[in-house]
Design goal:
The chain is mainly beta. The protein is built from one helix and 14 strands.
Length: 180
């Protein structure tokens, strides 16, 4: 799941990772966090990041094969050059994302929000989202103010389980018992 961060002082979000090389002409395999996966190439330029190392790159070509994205960056024309990108995170400026309606949000905006049940018991902090097919699942990890040290998997079912997401107050309210 994408995470907010700061590349070169910009407000950026991680949208993918370079997972390997493909062929001899500088192509890399990209794991995309976007939905649909091919929309990752719509957000440019890319900030490539590994640890403290960052560089700005431009996508020269992209293609989707099955459920994978293959990309060639401008200036990366050989397999050896492309291998230097393997393992790098792909970040883009947050402002490139479309504005959403008031009750809509991107998954990355939920990371770090407090998760509280209907009894006002703090279950923890939203860490990530698992895509299961039937419905997405929130991974809620314990934090210093949660009721216990249990990790919870809470199905994202609007109105039945997830009652309210309030980005301004940093809170997700769920209909989920503490012992479930």
């Amino acid at each position: 799941m994408p995470e907010p961060g700061s590349c070169q002082g910009r407000d950026v979000v991680q949208v993918g990772t370079v997972t390997g090389v493909f062929g001899l002409k500088g192509w890399v395999k990209v794991f995309s966090y976007t939905d649909p996966i091919e929309s990752i190439v719509d957000y440019q330029p890319w900030f490539m990041k590994r640890g403290e190392s960052e560089q700005l790159v431009e996508v020269a070509q992209a293609r989707c094969q099955s459920k994978k994205i293959q990309v060639r960056m401008r200036g990366y024309d050989t397999r050896d050059q492309a291998e230097a990108l393997v393992g790098m995170e792909i970040w883009v400026e947050r402002q490139l994302f479309s504005a959403l309606d008031e009750d809509e949000y991107y998954w990355f905006e939920l990371k770090g929000l407090a998760v509280v049940n209907e009894l006002n018991e703090r279950l923890g902090t939203m860490d990530s989202v698992l895509e299961t097919g039937a419905n997405d699942v929130l991974v809620v990890v314990p934090d210093p103010t949660s009721i216990d040290q249990q990790e919870r998997l809470i199905p994202y079912v609007q109105s039945e389980v997830v009652n309210k997401v309030d980005l301004k107050s940093g809170l997700i309210r769920v209909n989920w018992p503490r012992d479930y």
